[in-house]
Every structure is written in C-alpha cells, then in structure tokens.
C-alpha cells in the first residue's frame, strides 16, 4: 500500500500527459479535496478545459487518504480556462461514501496555480461566476466569456486555500452586504448534502434549484448554477433546508454549520454580489463595455470631493478590467481634452471611447486611456454648455445629445474632423440616443414626455412618441423594440425648468422638485418603462410600472434573452423586467412583468445597469446621500457622500451580451 501511494503521483502525471496529447513540458498541479474542512479520500479528480465545444479531459487522479492529489498537464491552449471536478470518495466528515450527486468544482484560469483546493466554497463561487455556462458538470460557452467567469472566481474565494476571496474580504463587501453570509450558507448546504442529509433532503435541495422548464439538476454544481441564474426563485425553501440541516439551538448558541457567518434570516434572494471601487470610481453615470469586456464609465464628480448639484469638481473616466480591477488612475481617472465631469455621455466603439462633459467638452480615448487628439481637432466654433448621451450606430456613426441647446452632434463614421451640428424638431434637453437597424435615430427628452425618431439621412422627417415625464435611457432589444426609462409617471407634476439651463442646474431643479413631492407623499411611487415597437406602436401606452417596483428609473439595458434590466434611482435597486421575449420565465409571465428587484447595502441610487459577456449585471451607484448631493450647505461629516460609492456587480443572473453596444443588443 505504501509503495502504491509513492508511485501514484508518477502514474497520474504520465496519464495526464497521455490524455492531453501534450508534447510540451507538463505542469504539476497539486491540491486537496475537502468537505467541512476534512479530506475526501478516493475522490475522482478530473481536470477539464472549458470552451465553446464539449469539455476536453486533460488529466485525472484520485485523492489520497488526506484528500490530496497531484496532476500533470500542459496548458489548455488558446487561453482556455480549466476547471477541476471532484466526485465520489469517502468524506471524513460523513459516515457514508459521498453521493454521486456531490460534485465539487473549482474554475481556474489558463495560468494554473501551484496548489488548489476543491471544496464547497469553491463550488459555490465557480457556479455563480460561470452560471450562464454550466450544463450538468460541464462548463461550455464563448471563450472570452469563460475567461471572464474564471477571472471573477478569486474575487469570491481563494482557489489555493478554498477560503474567502480578496475582494469579498475588503471593507466595501465583507460588512456592507449579505454576500458573505449567502456564500457561507450555500456552502453549508453543499456540506449537508453529503453529511447530515438523507435522500429526501437531497431531492428537495435539487428540486429547489430547478429551472422554470422543470429541469431538475443532477448534482450539486448544476444545482448551485440554477440558484445563481434565478436566486430569487426559492429562497424560503433553501433557508428551510439550511434550518433543517443545522437547527438553531434553543439557547441561542451557534448553529453547527461548517461556515460562518451564515444567514440568520430568510433572504429575499441568494444573490452573490460585489462592489468595486478605485481608479477614480465615484458617482458613475453610464456603464459601457469594450470588445474585451473592460468596463468604461464617466464619473459625475471627483472621488473624495465635496461635490453635489450646488458645488462640484468633475470626475474623469474609469476603466475596470472584466474582474473589476481598476485600470485607470486613482481619484482622477483618465482625463483630457478639457472635460470636467461626465454625465450620461459614455460610449464605446470598436476602437475608441467617447465621453461628453457637463462643461460641453468631448473626450475621445484609445483603449489605453490616451486622448486621440486635442480640443482644437473638433470643427465646431460654437461653445457647448452641457453634452449628455452618446449613441453609436452599427455603421460606426457617433451621435451626441446637446442637453442645453436642444440639438445633436453627428460624427459620420466616428470621424472627429467631420463633426456637424444637427437641428431636429421636438428636442427638449435631449438625453440619450440609440440608432436602430434601419439607421433611424431615437432621442430621449429629459424635459418632456417625448421620444423623437428620425432617419439619420433626413432629420427633417422627425416624429415623436409619448413615454413618461423626464425621459432618460433608451435601449434596443434584438427585435428592434426601443425600451424607454422615464423618471416620472404621466400623472406626476412635472418640474419647471427654464430654457437654456445648464445640465447641473437642470439636475438641481428636478431633484429639488422630486424630493419635495415624494417626501410630502411617502407612499407615492413614480416612474415608468415603455416599449416602442419598430412600427411606433406600444403594447402599454402609459408604460410598465411593475406594481410600483419601478421607482424613478434612470438607466436600462437589455440582456441576451431580451429581458430588461433597470436602474432604480429613487428606489435604490436593480429591477429585472420581462421583455418582449418571455422565454425562460414561469408560465403566464407577460411582457412588462417585474420578475425581481435586487437590493442590498451596496446598491445605492442607481443610474445605469449593464450586462457583460459572462451574464453579470453591473450597477452604477450614482448618488448616495441626498443631503450631500443636493443640500445648499451639506452636513460636513457626510459632505463627501453625495456621489455613489463603487460599481456593484451581481453575478450570473443575466443572459450574456456581446459588446460594444452599437445598435441592437447582441448575444456572444
């Protein structure tokens, strides 16, 4: 037996090389399989490469009595991420052999670590990060999407130790939300699956993770991915299973759950979310992704400043990697070409980033954050006061909304030198722009209830469509429907804003008016979302309000399933609304139905929400403290709290989207 243990690593290494067909030098990967902190002996540990096709087995080994294993493999190639699956064996923490339905997983990047742990927490984190790509025990999807998923796993757990991840442990996340407790509670459910639970409990756990089509997962990894995709579906059932497995002692002592802290109360959902800051993040406005999955966002105000609608120091441009790592300079972000604070004006083309500023300046960056020119490169003699949304057409045309002078700027093919002013009838502080597949330009009006549409080659043929009051974001689904977010419902008294007011003056007047009305009517909820079909008709002319779930919506975006994701400004939440395609939702779901509202301590007053290549939803915390943002003389202790803190990412809940956003939504 001793001799067998000594030669097993060598045999495993040889087998791994043969299985992978590698001729290059093989890398040794050592690790341990644990359950409840104790080893699983005799588990089959398999290393797979993930990609667009069926996974390829790279190596396989069996864990020893101490749960340890050794694998040898070459790189998967093409930057494809790899993952380990551990099944079977005898857990020391259990009295019986592990159920074949117990699948423990850790998703790794292409660069393998020297050591790795496979346990309950790595399984939860991997399932949530790759939720949109899990099929049984396999991970299959767009290669870049899978790289993004793998890069986010270490934010939640440390693959080397199986403990908590570095981002989860930072002050923004460890104490401000229930993510840590959600992670630990789900991990404890996986432990229970193999230890204290019986067959009936296991069946109920798997059923609780079933999808609307009735498909029941066959293993714990698939079950966790199901929970990640719809974390709102069965929180009461899952918490009851946790309570059954680890009853609360009558004397108030801790439960005997293997991971603490765990949930003390039934959650609204089992979301795993993290907030990212740094790189100048503070009061983010619009969120846009480049083709590699990096996030770009202009900031209203500078981090650390006592900024609000009365006094402000403008922010710069933030770039975050697909796993939230700040790639832009601290505090200031990227800047240049005269910009001083960015509102709704962030857009990404195939090769550039466009930003507009409250002071009427335009900044165009390359993907390294370098300005492509100077202010004098623009052909305009006119002085602009406040530029807002930037729309990018599929053909590369760039359109900019001039929110102070009721006009548009057009850059054919995205060429700065060819920019021109376009006058269009019906504009009233234009805010956002989208361009549909027929090259028709749609423009929202923040000082009216109208959305204007015109052919790009003939602005004289403008027509208008009614939405709510204070029209903000626009987004195109895959059918060409335009979705519209309006701050106020049609029955809400509109603010009176004088012509020519600067953007910040407009915000000041509108915010003051809204505060006055809503604070004097605490039960009042306002704001709507409209859908305008390509032919101009609307299924709900007065808009969708989601039984008051929609609360002063600002931004919205469409995911790969044509579902609508909305940023609630006043309501401080992310709203998931069924779009024109209700596939994947329970029978009876109608267009405009609100599926769920995501709330947490890290979700503040939101402007934009955006979906990445891996199906994660990013939410822009634009404002936080109303006194700091809007008071003429704010309280000094919270005078830097006017802007929102960080960008919050909800993992695995949306159908992935192909960036950049140029016209209609696209799937990867």
Number of helices: 10
How much of the sequence lies in strands comes to 25-35%
**The CATH topology of the largest domain is what?**
Neuraminidase
- Taking all residues together, what is the mean pLDDT? 94
Oligomer: single chain
**Residue ranges: pLDDT <50 for 5 or more in a row?**
1-24
Number of strands: 36
Walk me through what this model shows.
The chain has 668 residues and is an alpha+beta fold. The protein folds into 2 domains: 1-270, no CATH class; 273-650, Neuraminidase (6 Propeller), CATH 2.120.10. The chain contains 10 helices and 36 strands. Strands 1, 2, 5, 7 and 9 form a 5-stranded mixed sheet that branches. A hairpin with a 5-residue loop joins strand 34 and strand 35 (617-623). Mean pLDDT is 94; it is low at 1-24.
Blueprint (SSEs and pairs):
Blueprint: H1 2-20, E1 27-35, E2 38-41, E3 44-49, E4 56-62, E5 68-73, E6 82-87, E7 90-91, E8 103-108, E9 115-118, H2 120-129, E10 134-135, E11 138-139, H3 143-156, H4 171-174, H5 179-194, H6 199-208, H7 220-229, H8 235-245, E12 273-276, E13 288-289, E14 295-298, E15 317-320, E16 346-348, E17 353-356, E18 362-365, E19 387-392, E20 398-402, E21 407-411, E22 420-422, E23 430-435, E24 440-445, E25 450-455, E26 463-466, E27 469-476, E28 482-488, H9 503-520, E29 528-532, E30 553-558, E31 564-568, E32 573-577, E33 594-598, E34 605-611, E35 617-623, H10 626-630, E36 647-650
Parallel strand pairs: 1-9
Antiparallel strand pairs: 1-2, 1-5, 2-7, 3-4, 3-6, 6-8, 10-11, 12-36, 13-14, 14-15, 16-17, 17-18, 19-20, 20-21, 21-22, 23-24, 24-25, 25-26, 27-28, 28-29, 30-31, 31-32, 32-33, 34-35, 35-36
Helix pairs in contact: 2-3, 2-5, 2-7, 5-8
